[in-house]
Amino acid sequence: MNQTTQSQATGRNGKTPETIMASYLTHELRAPVTAIKLGLEIFEEQVATRLQADERQMLTLAIKNTGRLQGLVNDIMDYTKVLAGKMKLDFQTCDARELLSEVVDSFQAWAISKGIRLVKEDSNEPLPRIKAEPKRVIQVLTNLLSNALKFTPARGTVTVGVKAGKYEHAGTLVFRVKDSGAGIPAEHLESIFETFSQSVTNGKQSDGTGLGLTLARSMVQLHGGKIWAESWKGLGATFRFTIPISPEDLPEPIEVYANPVEYHGLFVDVYRKLNAFVAMLF
Fold first, then answer.
1. How far apart are the first and last CA of the chain?
2. How far apart are CA 259 and CA 264, in angstroms?
3. Residue spans of beta strands (DSSP E) within the chain
4. Could you tell me the CA-to-CA distances from 36 to 41, 43, 46, 69, 254 in Å, in that order?
5. Are 204 and 256 in contact (CB under 8 A)?
6. 3-state secondary structure of 265
7. Structure pTM?
8. CA-CA-CA-CA torsion for 27, 30, 31, 34, nearest 10 degrees?
9. Checking phi first, is residue 234 left (phi over 0); if not, alpha (psi -120 to 50) or beta?
């Protein structure tokens, strides 16, 4: 396809036929999937005590997979918005620790069921607030923590935390999600944030659309932050991302003088007398 044809196919609003179709299908799927999940949850509440063990297991599995399908539909909807340049954020001043705690609490039951220790690090040092859309920061943390738990074996540990950035990350808070899995092979480390790339560890590929980390990167970048991964074979993987500190919580800038300061008074007078005394000796 030449440049002119490609431009025409993309359209003025940045949409391609593929993204238009994906947007249409996900909008059509979202309502029925949500209705099915809600119906199953209501049914579970009403008849759970009257079901046999195998029947409860089947119902739980149906609810779980419907929730997974709902998540995939939402991921694709978000992805089409990002591609079309229509993802808008509702920035608020928010507490990073509260967002982190909300996500960790929602994953504790899953971690326990897998025999994984989920640890939230907290130095108790005062942290400035961030300027972000809370829902999107939670989305990024959810994607990263979900991946960490998937690839961490039983009796392993997943650690999460947030702290003030230093040096090149000054002016931001740095979130961290670290697992004790097998790690990400070096040949996959550079491409894990690419579209439809799926995490690979121990020769196994993760399930899902492969959009989770792509969306995480997009959301972080829309906030003006950065995201990256580090991994060593057999030592797990660590994901970090930065979110800018809210302007009202930024420290006051240090005033830098363009010209050297001239000091007067006792110090200068003593210095001159010392010079005169030394000159008399030679």
1. 86
2. 16
3. 92-94, 117-120, 130-132, 157-164, 172-178, 200-201, 204-205, 227-231, 237-244
4. 9, 10, 16, 11, 58
5. no
6. coil
7. 0.76
8. -170
9. left
Domains (range + CATH), the chain? 3-83 (1.10.287), 92-249 (3.30.565.10)
d(CA 32, CA 40): 12
| 150 contacts 68 by C-beta, under 8 angstroms | no
Would you say 165 and 175 are in contact if contact means Cβ atoms under 8 Å apart?
no
Cα distance between residue 138 and residue 153, in whole Å: 24
CA–CA distance, 40 with 167 (Å, rounded to integer): 51
Q: What is the pLDDT of residue 177?
A: 98
pLDDT per residue as tens digits for the range 210-240: 688 999 999 999 999 999 999 988 889 999 9
Residue 37 clears pLDDT 70, i.e. is over it = yes
What pLDDT shows up at residue 71? Answer: 85
pLDDT in tens, 159-216: 999 999 999 999 999 999 999 999 998 888 888 998 766 555 544 555 555 688 999 9
- For residue 88, give the H/E element and its range: none
- pLDDT score, position 166: 92
Contact 207, 149 (CB under 8 A): no
Q: Give kind and range of the element (H or E) at residue 91.
A: none
